Every structure is written in structure tokens, then in C-alpha cells.
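Sequence, please.
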């Protein structure tokens, strides 16, 4: 992914710009655990379970992080994303 590439998920650019120091620290912690799994040709279910436990995440979420990091090997790809609508956005008027 080049520096000027547009992320595939809407809101990802906002997440990068609005990420706090705490979010970046969490992404770095995740990278330290996820990177070895993503660089391995194969990894065991036990390794993913151990990573999930270390990260405090579910096993399926850990598999998704590994997959995402393999396709975009940047710490930014592991930033915790905020759920829901962007602050200040509104639903369209139904009048």
C-alpha cells in the first residue's frame, strides 16, 4: 500500500488521523504479536489461540487481524477502529 493509496474501508482515513497515542500503542502491541504469525507460511491453531489470549480478542478476530496484516503489513492496519457512525454525521431526512 503506497502512502497515497486510499484505504478500502470507509472511515479508515479518519481513524488514522484521529487515532490517539493510546490507539497507536495498542496497534504496536498487536503488531508485535501478529507479525510473527503473518510472516509464517503456516501457523498452528494453538499459536492463534495464544495470540488471541495475549491480545484479549476472540480467535476469529485474531485470524482477521493476521489476514489484514498480511495484506497490509503496517502497524496502522492494526489500529482499533471505532464502531458506529462518525461523530457529527446524521441520518438522511425522511421527510
Amino acid at each position: 500500500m503506497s502512502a497515497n493509496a486510499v484505504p478500502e474501508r470507509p472511515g479508515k482515513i479518519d481513524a488514522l488521523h484521529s487515532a490517539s497515542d493510546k490507539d497507536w500503542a495498542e496497534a504496536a502491541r498487536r503488531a508485535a504479536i501478529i507479525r510473527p504469525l503473518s510472516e509464517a507460511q503456516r501457523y498452528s491453531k494453538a499459536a492463534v489461540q495464544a495470540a488471541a489470549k495475549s491480545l484479549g480478542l476472540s480467535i476469529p478476530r485474531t485470524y482477521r487481524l493476521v489476514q489484514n496484516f498480511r495484506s497490509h503489513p503496517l502497524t496502522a492496519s492494526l489500529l482499533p477502529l471505532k464502531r458506529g457512525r462518525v461523530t457529527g454525521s446524521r441520518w438522511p431526512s425522511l421527510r
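Confidence is low (pLDDT under 50) at residues 1-7.
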